[in-house]
Structures are given as structure tokens and as C-alpha cells.
Design goal:
The chain is built from 32 helices and 40 strands. It is an alpha+beta fold and 1181 residues long. The longest helix is centred in the last third of the chain and has 41 residues. Pfam families: ANF_receptor, Guanylate_cyc, PK_Tyr_Ser-Thr.
Length: 1181
């Protein structure tokens, strides 16, 4: 009995059901009985697809098989299981989780290649029940892998056996493009070659779309009589019907061998003859229609023959509906859910594993987890399938499928008058034989009552028969020869002249005559510019070339196009990725005809270079780029006149192409509609189909650009297996409809379609809904109703219902209202509108540039001091400067390392952000400069870059006291009950400051003062301010600070130092200091004066307050609350009613007095003498 299911919860919140079954196998009970204790602990890892696949429908077969082997071989095998979701990653993840507990794997479902290698690396057996991949037969990489589902490529033996039975030595091979069919086709060709069977024709079609069958029949029916079709059943059905409807089967000369994936279903015979959906095709299945399938031999797996098979299905349903699978098989009473054939494969997988395990355990040194030993007991032998017939497993562990041959037969005893019967089966000569024998056990109702032959008696081209001389044919031939001679004589001169024209190669261009920016498009010197449009074309022009000025007005071109000059004019050069071309006559005619085309709305073809180092095509250059680029440029405003002019240009160009010898464009899309400097639309990229036919436009099977290029292609062309490069006129009309929609929607060719291009193409190709085909949404268009109606008519599903371009011009005639009949007047009007648009765009860009400049300057001022930043903006070199006396502040947090270990990184970041935001708000009120923060370290300096006498020590000291006070009330978010212990160190002295670096400049301090300040911090005490003797002396000089001597301490690199603790301050001292203004005369800091003296001499009262926020830039702001007019003074004649600013311009060595004057000001005399301080002052309003 099995143990209860163990459900494991994996990380990430994903729940997987892991069922690992591993059985200890017992030798045949008739020979040996293995003690049950030897199989205890053996588990099988079961890997079904429960959520993605159909695993729930047949998973119960596993438990039924496990019950069988435990009973049959006296085993005690348990299991584990997990959902592999038909995904290699999930399968290997589940196998890894089971590795230490299981001895074998059953599964996985759907994907096995990588899992088989992993199982082999662990030497664990893996038996798959749903994995047809032929690559797993290579036993060098998969020595422990076996499977019970027959691989479809094994049907190749049956196909060859059937052909040999009817002596068909020539056949055509029609193959679907799925991997399973391509692998089967390769096996058929290999066996055919070994058995002297030739493949005369081979065609590959898209397995999802079977509409290509008609074309294949038309192309191949003259080269074969026997068809082997490897693909879905609808391909065979369409093929047989068209073969019959076209009259080719009127003599019963053709036969079709169709291979099916699924076993024969006698209860549903309509599926082999009816079109999709086959359950609605009863009216189509007449006896005459059924005759089309009497020449079809269908190879399908034999249906189950076990009389107890229905009981097996009921057991599977019961086990599937119970734990652990919980399938909803019992939700509808009285209804039996279908159980797929994979249930039998799953049961067989467990059964053959149980047999092999029992035999290995019976060996002297047999181990249940020896994968290679288990595999050796499985391969090269037969087993009795639960389906009722014997199945052979070859030496590679692959199951040989038991195929039967089905034919349609008329039988009046059946309700419909016909049925499908099995007429033969295949047997193996021996277990190692590569070819089977076909045994007939029924009759085939051939059309015309005879077996078709693989080749006509005289051959397909009558090459095997010699007929008597026919005088009538000879006479007719002579007449035609005479007419031909007359025609040649009449047209001789014309032909000669035409040949001379072709021989001159007027289209040929010497590659040396082209002037290109770079000969190699991939040169590092080329600049690539791409706009918003993902489908726009790359313009490759180096800025150093003479062509660079053109780039200002160019839109991007495709990455295989360069802009160059030829004979003094700018041209577009399209490079073709191929070797030099051998020019034939047809190519000469095509190139000459394309060069002769001259139309206002056709891009002029100048010539081609086919024998140079690179093959290229040269055409007229259009500086506005493509219509697609213009529509993607959101800054380009297009009014109705612009749109009407461009659309009508496109219509005129397409009318000309359709009336010319070319006939159609074939690749019409907005990227091929170019616009020149006159705003005239020109159509390009057509007519040179012989060159394009040698190049593969599809660079990658699943490439994004390939599917994007198909967004304008008509559905009938998408479905065509051999799409003509020149397209069709009706296909061009469809492409025009997409362009017209794109012009009015301005949101790409498919508007708001929320799906990748590949999905859009698949929806367009689909034929499931012909009445309402998949098209862009038009209800959001704001254009006139007649334009929407024109779009819908142009992209109808049926090409015959689409109008031609002359009819389209009539439908859109109203768009011409407002356009000038004269093309020059129309061009002038469009250029005027474009010029006005450019002026608005320049104004908008100028405003944006100004805003970005302000943001940049603000960011620079946050990184560097203002004076240093101003020097850098002027492009000046910032030289290092020595400061004789500054005070440096260092602080850190005691216990920060422990706090970091106890907190998450995000918590630490939040804490430091809150802390330094608090610190920055405090430092902004002092004449200091924050140098940097590193982790918990905080560095501040005062006295630079603007000197402030001895005030730097006082500013740093006062700031430190406020920071220490603030830290005691600071709350940590994630630890609100803990207090940060700030440790502060101060030192005063000399240092050097300068800017280091160019890409990320930093304002750095250097000198012993920095090191000493750091030592003061590192040797300090938590929640105290540790200062040096030098700093203490300056503070004593300033006065107002209470200090406490700490004593002598040992400082690394300094020896013994006497240090102090700063305890508190008297704020009145600092208030008096702030009222003093330091004045530096001509760069001499020793010249100072009192502001009272300056104002007094001018008749002004003493200021009563100072704005602290201006201290960092050395401004002193005084609130002029009681300014009095100085009577009799020639310098002053106004009433002062607003603040006054004083500063020193240290860089230029002059003093500035800035006096903002109120509304009542009547003027102020420029320049005045300060007798108290000396020097010339400039007054600025």
C-alpha cells in the first residue's frame, strides 16, 4: 500500500505537488520471490503536468500501476510526486528536491531531454510516458532513459513496409513544419534510401495552415503517383479532397499514405474525412465526397484490444478523482470524463519498471538505484501492454508502435453507407530488424478497382516510350517556324537596338564614384542616431565628414543604408548583403526598366553597383525621411492639408506602378514612403525583385523585425507558402489601408493593439473568423466617416472585394478640398506651416533647456562650494588653495557596527537618511561647509572656501553643541527606545583644499589638520565633544564657551596630547560676533571695520538683525527697520525701506555694497568712499 502524499511548500510561495515513485522490483514470482523487506524505502518520483497539461485526467493510472506491481512482484514501493508544469526548469527543480529519497523517475510529461541527462548523471532510471522527442534515442547521453509512448518517427518502418508490399518505389513526401514531422521525414528518407525507394518530390508546409495543399497538388501531380503526408489530419483531408475535386482521381491513379499521431478511434470515424470542425460536417459527407478517401491509406496506432480496458479506464478515473490528484471526474454524476491514451502509457511505464526492479533485486548484488542495471532489464524485450497487445522496446529504450492501416469503404449496413476499417497490420521479422512486414487481413476498395502504380508506364515525361513520327505535328511545326522567322525579321532591328541599350548598362555605377562617410558600416567612427520609432531607419553619418550638415534635417534610415554623394548630389545607398552579382539578361532588363521610371511620386532609381567590393543600390535621397518617421515624431503637427497631400501623393504613385510593367509593389508600408524637402511623398523599395530574391529578408525565424515588417502584408499573402516578392495589386490595396489607418491614428500601423507583432500576424493569418477578420480598431479614429469606410473596404478579407487605386482616389476626392492645383503653390503653403511649427518647437525647447540648466546648476551647488562651482562653469582651472586656519568637525556613531548587524540594510538607510537630514538642517544655520558623509561618519569644516577670521572655531563649536543636543531626542524608526551615541572630535589648524577628479569632481581637504581632527573623534567619548588644544585656544579667544580639561591622552601619530571636552556656550557671545563684518581690502584680510561706522557716516542707523541663511556665501543681511535719510549728503537721495546686503568679492579683490531700494527710491549715486574702511566700493541696486 502507498503512504499518504507528502506535500512540500517551496520558497517563493509556489506550491508544487511532488510525487516520487520508486519501486523495488521483484523477479518473476514463478522463478524467484524477492523478500518484501528488500524493496522497503524504495520510492518512485512521479512527474506529471497537473496544472498546465492533462495530467489530472490520467494521473490515477500511476497509482493503479503501483498497486499492480506491489501485488504482482511482492514489493513495497512508495512514491512522491510533483507537478512539472511541462517546463524543464520546474522538472529539474522537482528532481533535485526528490534526489535523496527516490530510486527512479516516471515522467516528466512533455519535456524530457535535459531531465534525461540529469537522471543519467545520477544513474537513476527514468521512464517517460509522454515524450516523443527523437533525440532521446541517443544512448550516449541518455543511458538510463526509456519510454512507453511510441515515437512518431518509428512509423517510418511501417511506411516503408507498406510501400514495399505494393511495390511503390517512387513517392512524394509532404511534411508539416513541426519538429515531430521533420524528424519522422528524416527517418523515412533514410529507410527509403536503404530500400531503393526514391523521393521524387519533397514539400514542407506550415502545419497550422493547411491551405497550401492545393498549391502542392498543382505543383507535384506530374512528378509522382504516391504521396506520403506527415502532418495534422486536416492537411491529409484537404489534400485528398482537392486531389479528387481537381479530377486527378478520375482514373484512380493516385494514392495517399497519411500518418496519424493518435490511435485509431472506431467510435469517431468522421475525424478522418471531415473538415474542421468535423462535428458540423454531416451535410458534407456524401458518398461521392467519401470516394475521395478510398485512395487514402491511413497509418494509425492500433486501438486497445484488452477486453478489460474499460475497467482500467474506470480505475484510472477513480484514482484520479481521489487524493492526492483530486481530479473532477465525479463532479457530474453519470458522466464519464474521457481518459486519453497516455493513461495506458503511464500504466505500462510503472509495469515495466516493476518487472525490471524485481529482476534486479533478485540478482546477488542488485541495487534498486542502479539506473543502468534497471535499463538493461527493460530494453530489447517485449511486454504485455494494458491495451491488450504485445509491445516491443528496442535497444535504445524506445517503444515500437503497433500501427494498423485504415481505409474508407462503402458499406450499406452502416447508417451513413460507409465506414472505416483496418485492413492490415505490421509484424517484425525479428526484434532487431529495421524493416517490418505488412500483413493484409482485409480488402481495399480501390478507385477503379485496381492498385495505383507509382509511375506511368511511359514515365512522367514520356521518356520510356518512343512514338512514331507524326507528320501533322511536323507540319504545324514548320508553319510556326515560318511565322517565327517573319516575326524575328520584323522585330530584328528593334531587338538589336534594345540589346544595345541593355549592353551599355546605363544603370551601372562605379563604386569608386560614390563618396561615403565610411566604407564599413560597422566602423567605430560612425554615429548612429535612433528616434522614438522602433521601425525607423538608422542614419550613419560621422560628424567629421562633409555630409554631417545634412544630419540636422534627416530622419533615421535603415541600418543597411548610408547617405553619400554621387556626382555632386546627396544620394541614399542601400547595401545588399550578398556577393558580387553575375548579371543576366533578365536582371539587366529589370534594372533598365526601373531606371527609366520617372514620376513625381516615385523615388528615383539612379543605378546599382553589382561588381564592387559591396553590392549596393543608389537612389534619390529624401531628407525628410519616411512617412513612418514623420508619424512617429510627436513634435510634428500634421493638419488635414498635410495628411491629404501625402495620401494623394501615395495614391498617384501606386496608380502609376499598377499601370506600369511592374504591376504591383509587393512591400508597401509607411517606411517605404519617403518625403523629400518639398514635402512630396515618393514610393521606394520596389521593382528590383531579382536582387531581393537572392537575399533573405527574414534574418531570424522568430525575429521581432521580421514580424514587424509583415504588419502591412495582406492575409492571403501571409498564408501563402511561396509568397511572390512582387506581391499582388490587391495586396497593395490592403497595405494602403493599414497606412491610411496609421496616418490618422498616429499610433503605429496597428494602433493600440496590446500584443507583439508575431501574435498580430498569427491572428491575421487565421481563417477561424472570416466574417469578422482581425484588423486594427477604427472606432477611436477622429477622421471623417467616408475615410473610415474607405479603410474598411481596402482591408476586407476577400481580395476581390477590395477597390483599385483609381476607385480609392474617387472615394477620397473630398480630401483634395483646400489643396492648390499648382504643386508649387501647394508646396509653399506646406512649407509655411512647417516653418511656423518649427518656431513654436524652438521656443518650447529653449524654455526646457533653461529649466534643465537651472536644475544642473542646483545639483552642482549641492556637490561643490559656490565659488568653486562658478570657476568650473567658467571653464577655469580650480587650483588648490592653502588656508592658514580652519576648524574641522568629525563625528561617528558608537556601536554602529552592532546596530547594523541587528538591522536590515533598508532600515540602516532610512535611519541614516533621517539622521543626516536633521544634521543638514542644523548646519544650514552656521557658516560651515559639509565636506562628506561616509557611512556613519560626518565631516564639516568652517573657514573655507570663504575665510571668516577666527569665527570658524566658534561656528563649528556652536554647531556641535546643537547637534549633540538634537541627537539626544532623535528617534530611530525601527528602534524607538534606543538612543544614538554621537561621538564628536574638533581640531583647528592649517589645511589645503582643492577639487579632485573630472567626471565626478569632489572638493577635498588635505593636511595634518584633517588627520588630527579624525583622531579627536576616534579617541573621543560618546555623547561628548572632544577638542584639541589648538581649537581650545581659539575658543578662549572668542569667549563664551565652557570647557573641561580631559588631560593627556595618547594619539596615534601624535604622541601625548592635552585635550578638552566642550560642555556648553553662552549664545550672547556668538550674537555679538555675527554683528561684526569682516572686510578684506584688496585681498588683505587684516583690513576690517565696523558696520556701524560705515552706516553712521552715511547717516544710517545700526541694523538690528541678521539673516542667518546667507552666511554660507558670506553675505550679511541687515533688516533696515530705521533707516533715516541723511540730509545734505550728495550720495544719498532715497528712502531705504528694504534689506541691505554687504559682501566681499575675494576673487576680484574688490568690495561690494548691495543696496536693494524700495518703490519710493528716487535714485542712488553710483560709487561712494568708505573713509572708515578705505578702498573703492561699488553699489549695486
Amino acid at each position: 500500500m502507498t503512504t499518504p502524499l507528502k506535500m512540500l511548500k517551496l520558497n517563493g510561495g509556489l506550491s508544487f505537488a511532488i510525487l516520487c515513485i520508486y519501486c523495488h522490483l521483484v523477479q518473476n514470482l514463478s522463478a524467484h520471490v524477492v523478500p518484501s523487506n528488500r524493496s522497503r524505502g524504495v520510492k518512485i518520483g512521479f512527474l506529471p503536468a497537473m496544472t498546465v497539461g492533462k495530467g489530472k485526467q490520467f494521473a490515477g493510472a500511476f497509482l493503479y500501476g503501483l498497486e499492480h506491481i506491489n501485488k504482482e512482484y511482492n514489493l513495497s514501493v512508495d512514491y512522491m510526486f510533483e507537478d512539472n508544469k511541462v517546463d524543464t526548469f520546474e522538472s529539474i527543480k522537482a528532481m533535485t528536491n526528490m534526489y535523496h529519497e527516490v530510486s527512479a523517475f516516471v515522467g516528466p510529461e512533455g519535456t524530457c531531454r535535459t531531465e534525461g541527462v540529469v537522471a543519467a548523471a545520477w544513474n537513476l532510471p527514468m521512464i517517460a510516458f509522454k515524450c516523443p522527442d527523437s533525440g532521446l534515442s541517443y544512448k550516449v547521453h541518455y543511458p538510463t532513459f526509456a519510454r512507453t509512448q511510441p515515437s512518431t518517427f518509428k512509423v517510418s518502418k511501417s511506411v516503408i513496409a507498406l510501400m514495399k508490399y505494393f511495390q511503390w518505389t517512387k513517392t512524394a513526401l509532404i511534411v508539416g513544419n513541426r519538429t515531430i514531422w521533420l524528424e519522422t521525414a528524416a527517418a523515412v528518407k533514410e529507410l527509403a534510401d536503404q530500400n531503393d525507394i526514391s523521393i521524387t518530390v519533397e514539400r514542407i508546409f506550415e502545419d497550422k495552415f493547411t491551405t497550401a495543399m492545393n498549391d502542392i497538388v498543382d505543383e507535384t501531380h506530374q512528378h509522382t503517383r504516391v504521396y506520403v503526408i506527415l502532418g495534422n489530419r486536416f492537411a491529409s483531408i484537404n489534400f485528398a479532397r482537392y486531389l479528387y475535386d481537381s479530377g486527378l482521381q478520375k482514373n484512380g491513379e493516385y494514392v495517399v499514405i497519411s500518418v496519424q499521431e493518435q490511435p485509431f478511434q472506431p467510435s469517431n470515424i468522421k475525424r478522418y474525412v471531415a473538415k474542421f470542425p468535423y462535428y458540423k460536417s454531416d451535410n458534407d459527407l456524401t458518398l461521392e465526397r467519401i470516394d475521395a478517401f478510398r485512395a487514402v491509406l491511413t497509418l494509425a496506432l492500433r486501438p486497445p484490444s484488452n477486453p478489460n480496458y474499460e475497467e482500467f479506464l474506470d480505475k484510472t478515473r477513480n484514482y484520479s478523482s481521489e487524493k492526492p490528484f483530486n481530479a473532477p471526474h465525479k463532479m457530474i454524476p453519470g458522466k464519464k470524463f474521457p481518459v486519453p491514451i497516455y493513461a495506458a502509457h503511464l500504466y505500462d511505464a510503472v509495469a515495466i519498471y516493476g518487472r525490471a526492479l524485481s529482476e534486479v533485486l533478485a540478482m546477488p548484488n542488485g541495487k534498486p538505484d542502479d539506473g543502468r542495471a534497471i535499463f538493461n532489464q527493460i530494453r530489447s524485450r517485449a511486454f504485455k501492454s494494458i491495451q491488450g497487445h504485445d509491445v516491443f522496446i528496442d535497444e535504445n529504450g524506445d517503444t515500437e508502435g503497433n500501427y494498423t492501416v485504415l481505409t474508407v469503404q462503402r458499406d450499406p449496413s452502416f447508417p451513413r453507407g460507409w465506414t472505416i476499417r483496418s485492413v492490415g497490420a505490421f509484424t517484425s521479422r525479428d526484434n532487431k530488424s529495421a524493416v517490418l512486414d505488412f500483413n493484409m487481413h482485409g480488402s481495399i476498395q480501390w478507385l477503379k478497382g485496381k492498385v495505383p502504380v507509382c509511375e506511368p508506364p511511359c514515365g512522367f515525361r514520356n521518356e520510356k516510350c518512343q512514338s512514331d513520327f507524326d507528320w501533322t505535328v511536323a507540319s504545324v511545326g514548320c508553319v510556326f517556324a515560318a511565322v517565327f522567322v517573319v516575326i524575328v525579321s520584323v522585330l530584328g532591328l528593334r531587338h538589336y537596338l534594345y540589346e544595345q541599350k541593355l549592353a551599355k548598362l546605363l544603370w551601372k555605377i562605379d563604386f569608386k564614384g560614390l563618396q561615403l562617410p565610411e566604407s564599413d558600416l560597422k566602423s567605430p567612427g560612425l554615429k548612429c542616431e535612433r528616434r522614438d520609432s522602433t521601425d525607423s531607419m538608422d542614419l550613419l553619418i560621422p560628424s567629421s565628414t562633409p555630409l554631417a550638415p545634412f544630419t540636422e534635417s534627416l530622419t533615421p534610415f535603415r541600418n543597411n543604408i548610408q547617405i553619400g554623394t554621387y556626382k555632386g548630389m546627396v544620394v541614399a545607398v542601400k547595401f545588399i548583403n550578398r556577393k558580387p552579382v553575375q548579371v543576366n539578361r533578365e536582371m539587366k532588363k529589370e534594372l533598365q526598366h526601373r531606371k527609366d521610371i520617372n514620376h513625381d511620386n516615385i523615388n528615383r532609381f539612379l543605378g546599382a553597383c553589382l561588381d564592387g567590393p559591396r553590392v549596393c543600390v543608389v537612389s534619390q535621397f529624401c531628407s525628410r525621411g519616411s512617412l513612418h518617421d514623420i508619424l512617429e515624431n510627436n513634435n510634428m503637427k500634421l493638419d488635414d492639408m498635410f495628411i491629404a497631400s501625402l495620401v494623394l501623393d501615395l495614391i498617384k504613385g501606386m496608380i502609376f506602378i499598377h499601370e506600369s510593367r511592374i504591376g504591383s509593389h509587393g512591400n508597401l508600408k509607411s517606411t517605404n514612403c519617403l518625403v523629400d524637402t518639398r514635402w512630396v511623398l515618393q514610393i521606394s523599395d520596389f521593382g528590383l525583385y531579382s536582387l531581393d530574391s537572392h537575399t533573405d529578408r527574414r534574418q531570424s525565424v522568430d525575429g521581432l523585425n521580421y514580424y514587424k515588417d509583415l504588419l502591412w502584408t495582406a492575409p492571403e499573402l501571409l498564408r501563402s507558402a511561396n509568397r511572390p516578392p512582387q506581391g499582388t495589386p490587391k495586396g497593395d490595396v490592403y497595405s494602403f489601408a493599414i497606412i491610411l489607418f496609421e496616418v490618422h491614428a498616429r499610433n503605429g500601423p496597428w494602433g493600440d493593439a496590446k500584443m507583439p507583432p508575431q501574435d498580430i500576424i498569427e491572428h491575421v493569418k487565421s481563417t477561424s473568423n472570416v466574417t469578422e477578420p482581425f484588423r486594427p480598431e477604427t472606432h477611436l479614429l477622429s477622421c471623417k466617416p467616408h475615410i473610415v469606410n474607405c479603410i474598411k473596404q481596402c482591408w476586407t478579407e476577400n481580395p476581390d472585394d477590395r477597390p483599385d487605386f483609381k476607385s480609392i482616389r474617387t472615394m477620397l476626392k473630398s480630401m483634395q478640398q483646400g489643396l492648390h492645383s499648382n504643386i508649387f503653390d501647394n508646396m509653399i503653403a506646406m512649407m509655411e506651416k512647417y516653418s511656423n511649427h518649427l518656431e513654436d518647437l524652438v521656443d518650447d525647447r529653449t524654455m526646457q533647456l533653461s529649466e534643465e540648466k537651472k536644475k544642473t546648476e542646483l545639483l552642482l551647488l549641492r556637490m561643490l562650494p559656490r565659488s568653486v562651482a562658478d570657476q568650473l562653469k567658467r571653464g577655469e582651472r580650480v587650483s588648490p588653495e592653502t588656508y592658514s586656519s580652519v576648524t574641522i568637525y568629525f563625528s561617528d556613531i558608537v556601536g554602529f557596527t552592532v546596530l547594523s548587524a541587528e538591522s536590515s540594510p533598508m532600515q540602516i538607510v532610512d535611519m541614516l537618511n533621517d539622521l543626516y537630514t536633521l544634521f543638514d538642517s542644523i548646519t544650514s544655520h552656521y557658516d560651515v561647509y559639509k565636506v562628506e558623509t561616509i557611512g556613519d561618519a560626518y565631516m564639516v569644516v568652517s573657514g573655507l572656501p570663504l575665510r571668516n577670521g577666527d569665527n570658524h572655531a566658534g561656528e563649528i563649536a556652536s554647531m556641535s553643541l546643537q547637534l549633540l543636543s538634537a541627537i539626544k531626542t532623535f528617534k530611530i524608526r525601527h528602534k524607538p527606545n534606543e538612543m544614538l551615541k554621537l561621538r564628536i572630535g574638533l581640531h583647528s589648524g592649517q589645511c589645503v583644499a582643492g577639487v579632485v577628479g573630472l567626471k565626478m569632481p569632489r572638493y577635498c581637504l588635505f593636511g595634518d589638520t584633517v588627520n588630527t581632527a579624525s583622531r579627536m573623534e576616534s579617541t573621543g567619548v560618546a555623547l561628548k565633544i572632544h577638542i584639541s588644544m589648538a581649537c581650545k585656544l581659539i575658543l578662549d579667544k572668542l569667549g563664551g564657551y565652557q570647557l573641561e580639561e580631559r588631560g593627556n591622552i595618547h594619539v596615534k601619530g601624535k604622541g601625548e596630547m592635552t585635550t578638552y571636552f566642550l560642555l556648553s556656550e553662552d549664545t550672547a557671545f556668538r550674537s555679538r560676533r555675527l554683528e561684526q563684518q569682516t572686510v578684506i581690502s584688496n585681498g588683505n584680510p587684516s583690513s576690517t571695520c565696523n558696520l556701524d561706522t560705515i552706516l553712521g557716516e552715511k547717516g544710517l542707523c545700526r541694523p538690528v538683525s541678521r539673516h542667518s541663511s546667507m552666511t554660507n556665501s558670506n553675505w550679511s543681511l541687515y533688516n533696515n527697520r530705521a533707516v533715516q535719510h541723511h540730509k545734505g549728503s550728495s550720495d544719498w537721495s532715497s528712502k531705504m525701506d528694504s534689506p541691505i546686503f554687504f559682501t566681499s568679492d575675494l576673487q576680484h579683490g574688490r568690495k561690494l555694497g548691495v543696496f536693494p531700494i524700495g518703490n519710493e527710491a528716487r535714485g542712488m549715486k553710483k560709487g561712494f568712499q568708505n573713509s572708515a574702511c578705505g578702498g573703492n566700493w561699488e553699489s549695486r541696486v
